Structures are given as structure tokens and as C-alpha cells.
Amino acid sequence: MRASILSNLVVDEIVSRNNISSQSLGGPAAYCGITARKFGFDTTLFTHFGKDLDSKYLEYLKKHGIIFNSFKHSELPTTRFVLRNLENDRELTLNSNCSAIEIEEIKNVKSDCWIISPVFEEVSVELLRYLATTSEKGFVMLDPQGYTRAIDSARKISLRKKIDVPLNDLNGIKLDSHEISCLTNGLSGKEGLQKIRSKYGIDYVIYTQDQNIHLLQDERLYWLNVPKIDSPDSTGLGDIITASFACTIVKEKDPIWALCFAAGALTSALQTREIGIEKIPSKSAIEENATYYYNIMNYDTI
After folding, report:
1. Cα torsion at 162, 91, 123, 258 (round to 10°)?
2. Which single residue of 41, 82, 236, 302 could bond 3 by disulfide (Cβ 3.0 to 4.6 Å)?
3. What pLDDT is stored for residue 40 in this prediction?
């Protein structure tokens, strides 16, 4: 099976809570790409990066079996963020931003699973609509995080209060509390999930909040409570959840198992207590946790 990831590669400077700085390859292209490979998918990145990207990062991805849609370097520098982990939050600063992905790059490409997860301005809504409405497109999953981001004069990332993104014809979406609010004019929780489900007709709506992961499918709401695990870095956890869910639903066609694998991947990643992409867990660790979660699944009819 084939997975395709639409997102620009990122180099993160990660500053820990005790002010220790480290550099890591990052962004959904890396986190989702490597996670999809752990699930056995042939994985292609539709991504842009500049000539400044250290070759060791490209070799790292190649070593993990990642395929690139093109090795043509952008004239712009690679997208780079500074991620400062605070006590209960994190602060993002955009140091540089690479070029946008074009529709022509994905034309005539067939894939079993598409994961669209922009970091900042590289996936236009026109590209999103093109992919979502293309026949024989495969399963299309969106993490809209990049659409909610704005930048101030100091290049710090802030979050928009409202966004208008065409979500019709998507198969799945992964959201946090802020993203639900942006898409529903301030709604939250179960009410916000129902609004998104009814307005856009998305088959699977994933919602993460603190230690809880929810899934709305048809008229049933499933959820799992994940234990709090002290970890030095939370970067990429949402990407690991997104890729784990999408890959499982495509392979197994079972939303309950897919939710369990998403929760299992989150738990396994935190249990590594690693920083950056080193936290991406093994398939066996994910499966062990997923089996545990399968037996404690909660659900309700709404």
C-alpha cells in the first residue's frame, strides 16, 4: 500500500523547559512519513526544501525508506521553526519559509492514503480541493494546523480565531480544541464535532484534548483516556496520531482499531521520552498499547 504526505520538510530548533536547545528534522513530512513506514506503507513525500537542508536529514529519511516526489531544491530556504517548550504550552517562531507545493506535482498520482498537513502556507485551499474531489483519490486525511497559523512582526506564530477552509469530500480530519473553534465560529467539544460532521460530511473526525482522544463516526462518539506521561518534548505528537489513524483505517477498515492505534502511538511516543523524530515509536510498541486500549474503549450515541 502507498501513502503520500503533503507537507514541507521542517528543521526544528527545540528549546526544552530547562532552556536546553537541540536541532531536529521535523514537520509532518518527517513525523507522518516515518510513522507510515512503520505501518508498512510505501511512503512518498510531496514536499519542498532548500539547498540549505543538511544532507544528513535526507539520508536519514532515505534510510527509513522514504521516497521523494522530487529532489529539485527550492530557491527559498528550508522551513525552520524555533519551538520553545513552556510549562503548559509551547511558543513557535518561524525563521524561514519554503515554497508552496503546486497542483501539477500531484496530478496523475495514485495513492491509497493521502495525509495533508501544512505547516505554513505551503498547501493552498485550491490544492486541498483538487485532491479531495479527484476520483480514485484514495483515503484523504487532513490536519489543518497550518491554516490556523498567522505570523506577527517578530515572526512569532499566533493562532487565527476563524478560518474558512473547504472540508467537503475529505475522508478524515484530526483536530484540536482551537481548530474546532476556528472551523465552527467558537463551538467546542461534542457540539463542535457534530457541527463539523453535519456541515462537511467527513467520515471520521478525530479530536484530541489533553489526555483524551475522541472519534466521531456516523452517530457514535468513541473516546480513550491516555495517561499523562512526563516527556521532554511534545513536538510531532499530533502528526504521529494522524498517520497512525489514517494508515490503520486504510489497512484494517476498522475505525475502533484505528482509534486504538492512534492512542497507542501517542502513548508509545511519550514513553520513549525522546526529543524530535527519535520519539517515533516502533510498530510493536504501538500495537501493544493499542491492544490494551481496545479493551477500555468508551462510546456514546449522539
Report:
1. -90
2. 41
3. 97
Residue range 172-183: average pLDDT? 95
Q: Which DSSP string do the residues of 8-38 spell out, in sequence order?
A: --EEEEEE-TTS-EEEEEESHHHHHHHHHHH
DSSP secondary structure of 159-198: E-S------TT-SEEEEEHHHHHHHHTS--HHHHHHHHHH
* Cell numbers representing residue 224 in the block: 480513550
Question: Would you say 275 and 232 are in contact if contact means Cβ atoms under 8 Å apart?
Answer: yes
How far is 218 from 246, CA to CA, in rounded Å? 17
The predicted pLDDT at position 87 comes to 64
Q: Where does residue 106 fall: left (phi above 0), alpha (psi -120 to 50 degrees), or beta otherwise? A: alpha
pLDDT averaged over the chain? Answer: 93
* CATH code (residue 70): 3.40.1190.20
- Domain count of the fold of the chain: 1
Segment 50-59, tens digit of pLDDT: 999 999 999 9
Q: Which domain holds residue 83?
A: 2-301
Residue 272 confidence (pLDDT) above 90: yes
| Strand pairing report for 212-217 and 204-209 | antiparallel
Flag whether the pTM goes above 0.85.
yes
Q: Give SS3 for 277.
A: helix
Q: If DSSP codes are grouped into helix, strand and coil, which group holds residue 232?
A: coil
**What is the DSSP secondary structure assignment for residue 115, as one 8-state letter?**
E
